[in-house]
Amino acid sequence: MKYLNKKNILFFCILITGIGVFILINFFLYPSEEKVMKEFNYAQQYLYQGSIDKALNKKKNPNYLGFSGIASKYPFTKTGNISIFYAGICYYKLGNYKECIKVMKNFSAKDEIFPAIKYGIIGDAFVQIKNKKEALKNYMKAAMIRENEITTPLYFYKAALLNFYMKKYEKSIFFLKKIDIKYPFFLHKKNVEKYIMFIENKL
């Protein structure tokens, strides 16, 4: 009898949880998604026009949210999440690299390309604040997190260039040769070959 009661309680808990999730998705998340898309479109238009401050709206203009407002007000929507990414881009373009890193770390990326771009931008921001160690670490994450023909060679290339300018030629040529062998159609393939030739002559 006690066992049956426990089973009934468990079933009831699962049912209540299921109903809660259904209500959350259908009455809160989806309407929010539709509403927030309008705000997102405003912010995107400003970004395309080159009005980075307005797109971000960190000054909290009451007429629209901007990427910053969307990210904080609608964090559990898909649009809120992608707004975090765009806010990070805006902070980078405005030269606020520390804030860019902070914001980008909160971006949840799950597809083939965005996870790499996330860590790549973080790497770029660390380069700007002259933290080469963290920049390299993030370039490696960007290259390896989702191996593909586009982002993997790009971030190996950035890691190679950073090592090159740090005069760590052996590490640099390691990444360059990796690109040369595995990614023959990489956009900057000619530059890769030039750097390899230069380093081989130097070593």
Can you characterise this structure?
The protein has 203 residues and is mainly α. The chain folds into two domains: 1-95, no CATH class; 109-203, Serine Threonine Protein Phosphatase 5, Tetratricopeptide repeat, CATH 1.25.40. It contains ten helices and no strands. It has helices spanning 2-48, 52-56, 66-73, 78-93, 97-105, 114-128, 132-144, 151-165, 169-182, 189-202. The chain is elongated and about 60 Å long. The protein starts with a helix and ends with a helix. The model is unreliable at 1-28 (pLDDT under 50).
Share of helical residues: over 70%
Estimate the global geometry from the Cα principal axes: elongated
Distance between the termini: 80 Å
Strand content: under 5%
Secondary-structure content class: mainly alpha
Major sheet attributes: none
Highlighted features:
10 helices; elongated; 203 residues; 0% strand; 2 domains; mainly alpha; Serine Threonine Protein Phosphatase 5, Tetratricopeptide repeat; disordered N terminus; 77% helix
Topology, pairings included?
Elements (H helix, E strand, L loop, with lengths): L1 H47 L3 H5 L9 H8 L4 H16 L3 H9 L8 H15 L3 H13 L6 H15 L3 H14 L6 H14 L1
Helix pairs in contact: 1-4, 3-4, 4-5, 5-6, 6-7, 7-8, 8-9, 9-10
Report a brief summary of the structure.
This protein has helices spanning 2-48, 52-56, 66-73, 78-93, 97-105, 114-128, 132-144, 151-165, 169-182, 189-202.
